[in-house]
Model the fold of this input.
Amino acid sequence: MSASPASPVTARSAATVLLLRDRPQGMEVFMVVRHHEIDFASGALVFPGGRVDPDDAGIAEGLGGDEKASPIHVAAVRETFEECGVLLARRRGEQALVGADVVRRLEAPRAALCRREASFADILAAEDLVPATDLLVHFAHWITPRTQPKRFDTHFFLAVAPEDHLALHDGGEAVDSAWIRPADALDDAAGGRRKMIFPTRMNLMKLARETTAEASIGAARGAPIVTVEPEFVRAVEGGRELRIPLAAGYGGEIFLAHDMPASGGAQPR
Done:
């Protein structure tokens, strides 16, 4: 059952990170495959991300209330660490990101964090670390349609992956992972080799316009963030047409969504 448009379910805050790296064949983005037994978007290729936790607000307060250190920014750093083992953090008072040695030392705490047996705040405190939220560049903002029974208010961020951090899926929510060029991921989805939800496809299309991480981040810094809350237009053969704001920068207003969990109950990522 869908929620009544007159009384929509409150959308839960969430964050998603598009980790980028440059390779001779072009820019790649890190993506994970969701577990097949997860209720929403099972088996889909998505970006790392998840809901904002209550503890994220406490960490954000300790960062001084900067606009780039909100609970959503903290959630983005935490989820990136949880889901792929990349830790965008620094020693307090330092500019360099932590090295792979620190990340390896935190493998057991990370596993406990994924099991909800440890807190991100405690992990940071044990190593005197501060989330590097300033490295996150706002890329997109999507909200699940009002008619859906589960809704998310998701902010997408770009970040360059530290060279020496090994990105790898957690083996729980995500069962596989890959560094892949945006155009190749889109081709795989179009060819039926990958399952992909609507927001992921749209943001890969947007990301594929640039060929380097620097260019992608530069373009994102210079572009306004326009909130996207897809609206149903009509059912057509092969899916449904959805309307999004032209000003959001996706190159149009009406797009075909092949999978309704993409635009509906599943968290956009």
